[in-house]
Amino acid sequence: MSQIITLEQLKQTLKEKLASGARVVAPVLDGDMATFKPITNVEKASFEPRACVQNSIKEFFFPKHETLFSFVRQGNDVVLTDAADFDVEQIVVGARPCDAAALPILDPLFAWDYQDRFYQERRAKTTVVTFACTKSDAHCFCSAVGGAPDNTSGADAILFDLGDGSFEVRAVTEKGTALFAGKTSESDKTGAACEPPKADFDVNSIAAWIRENYSSPLWEKVSLRCVGCGACAFVCPTCHCFDMVDEGSYNKGKRVRNWDSCQEAMFTLHASGHNPRGTQGKRQRQRLAHKFVIYPDKFKSFLCTGCGSCSRSCGQMFGVRPCLEALDKQGVKAQQ
Ligand code: SF4
Ligand code: SF4
User: What digits encode the pLDDT tens for the residues 193-241?
Assistant: First the structure.
């Protein structure tokens, strides 16, 4: 038997969480598109089947802008004050499987040479509820990087839309079981995700090509469309580059970190004026090599879930899938 929850029961579950002081994050309609936002009224949440949401749930674990500590100068001393702990329970509901799948990919990064308590505290206090995909679009390629429309990686529970105002609930972890305990009823209905999206390139072959073709002129050729705006990194669930700056004055201020993007011209600009990645081709090479060679070498997984958000958001109709397709056609297959 499967476990079923109606949309009204799901909203009631979220209402109870809000009443208990938890923070609830859900897709909220913003014109034609949905954006993940913290909500205080569950009626604002939009749980319609969709292939994309404008932002990634990443920002509720790793915010765009956050204070690490504040400082104040007192005589010859500098007094540091840690940022407050993240001590709120958080429920993120309505994520796509390819968005949630980024979390286990990022976990080792934030627990590697530095134990990042900011990320780790949010991860520990958050329950992630995904919706199995009911549609894909031309940007999706989760199946090419080991994902699927019903992938449960990173999810505490996955919901399958039954199309009648109810969902099949499949708990994945103890947190997911606890969230829906006593909220579901038994049924013989079962949900199913859509068919996996198609991709006619092999990511492992492209990764092998990247390893061998660091200096290929193809990098500049395929990157001509890219204007280096960085939008692809900001919507990406796995991109995690950040910059740290001190804000305030000499006597009083705070250290903050802000998202950064390897596609922006100043990303690796040296104080001397030299930039080792001084062209867009070199910056795209950095992005692709990091995602498909360097990160897998270090952490044993691609730094990409095939969500398609980068190309969906790119004003130049570029992004990772078009870049992979160009490297496959003009690099991998041209050599065969
Ligand atoms: S690929 Fe597109 S979104 Fe990314 S930096 Fe280039 S132009 Fe901007
Ligand atoms: S690189 Fe593009 S397709 Fe891959 S996870 Fe990031 S946004 Fe999604």
Answer: 999 999 999 999 999 999 999 999 999 999 999 999 999 999 999 999 9
Helices (H), the chain: 7-19, 97-100, 102-106, 117-124, 174-180, 203-212, 218-222, 231-235, 280-289, 295-299, 309-313, 320-327, 333-335
Q: Are 73 and 251 in contact (CB under 8 A)?
A: yes
The reply to whether ligand 1 has any atom less than 6 angstroms from the CB of 295 is no
pLDDT digits (tens, 9 = 90+) for 310-319: 999 999 999 9
Q: Which of 140, 304, 321 to mutate to test the pocket of ligand 2 (most atoms within 8 A of CB)?
A: 304
Burial 60-77 (b: 16+ CB within 10 A, else e): bbbbeebbeebeeeeeee
236 lines ligand 1 (CB under 6 A): no
Q: What is the pLDDT of residues 90-118, one digit of tens each?
A: 999 999 999 999 999 999 999 999 999 99
Q: Which amino acid is at 110?
A: F
Q: Taking all residues of the chain, what is their mean pLDDT, rounded to a whole number?
A: 96
Nearest CA to ligand 2 atom 6: 236
Q: Which residue's CA lies nearest to atom 1 of ligand 2? A: 304
Q: pLDDT grade, residue 160 (50/70/90)?
A: very high
Ligand 1: nearest atom to the Cα of 323: 1
Cα(226) to ligand 1 centroid in Å equals: 5
Ligand nearest to the CA of 228: 1
Query: Does residue 318 line the site of ligand 1, with CB under 6 A?
Result: yes
